[in-house]
Design goal:
By secondary structure, this protein is mainly alpha-helical. The protein has one domain. It has helices spanning 3-28, 34-53, 60-82, 87-94, 97-109, 115-132, 139-161, 167-182, 196-224, 226-233, 236-248, 254-270. The two termini are 34 Å apart. This is EamA domain-containing protein.
Length: 274
């Protein structure tokens, strides 16, 4: 199998893993609080990645990376999914991250946006207004957008400080450190049913979202390059809608479909260079 074919297959796996993670997280939270699920994701996922990465690094840069790209992001993500009527819509809101990355580049570093990037930003936020609706906008939607913003902050930090690190070791370390940072949130709600179903769903989320998703992502980036892999990852929300239908029997509304399509088109346009 040539590297490009392997890379595309890996990215299809990423779409399946991260697309389904929104719905399986929703199911898992029938049995536990968002904070307990966060600990499952980082605890179990971190242990598996740690065994694969064969090492753990803890320093100031790794801790800040874990705070932004790990603990805060996943806590916000799980809370958003918990309070969402359709977790697939949450995936669209979270994937506004590239838009926030671009806006932060303009604000923090004085980068001048191109005409296409401005059009992309306008389209993305117009699509959000259509998808969530002015009157149906709820706390889950707001937290999801906040999660996208935190992810963008983490992306900037990663690019400036950790871009040359070994990715598997970095993410193994991030998961372990994130578990330690997120542990105090259990005080808010330590609820979890003491059943095999609860444990099984917690482990499934960890293995699918934290282990399988990231390992396939690394393989896709290695074989296709970061630009192609990142472009394909924008399809994760489309995959999330499919899995929400298959797993939760959630049929998106017309406005959700139209708004999500406009948002993702805006995100894609904003990443074009012209």
């Amino acid at each position: 199998m040539n590297n490009k074919l392997r890379g595309y297959l890996a990215m299809i796996g990423v779409l399946a893993a991260w697309g389904s993670s929104y719905s399986i997280s929703k199911v898992a939270m029938y049995y536990m609080s968002p904070f307990v699920l966060t600990m499952y994701r980082f605890g179990v996922g971190g242990l598996v990645l740690l065994l694969i990465g064969r090492g753990l690094t803890i320093n100031r840069k790794y801790v800040i990376n874990a705070l932004l790209n790990g603990a805060l992001f996943v806590v916000f993500l799980n809370i958003a999914i918990k309070y969402s009527s359709n977790p697939a819509l949450i995936s669209v809101l979270v994937y506004t991250q590239p838009i926030f990355v671009l806006i932060l580049s303009i604000v923090l570093y004085g980068e001048r946006p191109t005409a296409l990037q401005v059009i992309g930003i306008i389209l993305a936020f117009s699509g959000l207004l259509i998808a969530v609706g002015v009157y149906s906008f709820d706390i889950g939607d707001a937290i999801a957008i906040l999660g996208g913003f935190v992810w963008a902050l983490g992306t900037h930090y990663y690019r400036r400080n950790l871009v040359n690190e070994d990715l598997i070791r970095l993410n193994a370390s991030m998961a372990v450190i994130s578990a330690l940072i997120a542990a105090p949130t259990l005080i808010i709600s330590p609820h979890m049913e003491l059943t095999l179903n609860a444990v099984a769903w917690g482990i499934i989320v960890a293995l699918v979202a934290q282990v399988m998703g990231f390992l396939l992502w690394f393989l896709g980036v290695k074989d296709l390059g970061p630009v192609t892999a990142s472009s394909m990852s924008i399809l994760v929300p489309a995959s999330a809608y499919l899995f929400a239908l298959l797993i939760l029997d959630k049929v998106p509304t017309e406005m959700e479909i139209i708004g999500s399509a406009i948002t993702l088109a805006g995100v894609l346009i904003s990443q074009l260079r012209a």
